[in-house]
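Reply to dn_fold:

You asked what the input looked like. This is it:
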Amino acid sequence: MKILNIHGYQAKAENSVFYALQNNSYEPVSLQLDYESQSPEEVLHLLTEAYSANHCEAVTGSSMGGFFAMQINALYHCPAVLINPFTTPFIAFPDIPEFMRGYMRLTANLAEFEPASAYAVIGEKDDMIQTHDFIKDLLGAEHCVLVPDGGHPGSTLPLEEIFREHGRVFFGN
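and this is what came back:
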């Protein structure tokens, strides 16, 4: 199964999520994105092209990538796994007003987000993201895997084990 994997801000395309998916016999498709120089609309365009061209069936997204994974879920009605998702990226770029407005425009797409087909992996010691309670309420406890000692980076989460134990539920395979 091909899964579009979307990295976080200033992270690498081949990240801990990429390798955890690969080590569980999934085929991750990852693009190297530059959230500082590519507009939010451009990032979404690149991701939708990659999702379609590679015949992906699901999406994962870490931190800022979680926002875009929600976008892909809203557009393609596919399974999504959000890893410490940053759901309010419009507050990340106050010095670049056009990016802030771009993220706000994309937020409208989330009216089509399907919580029933989404799951979250949340590090409970994540000191970077303050919106995890929102995600827990949106998805419901049964759609959240909480990692008590997990921090913000995916490397602090037992992702390989989580995908091994929950992959069939997450991705429906």
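The chain has a mean pLDDT of 95.
Hope that clears it up.
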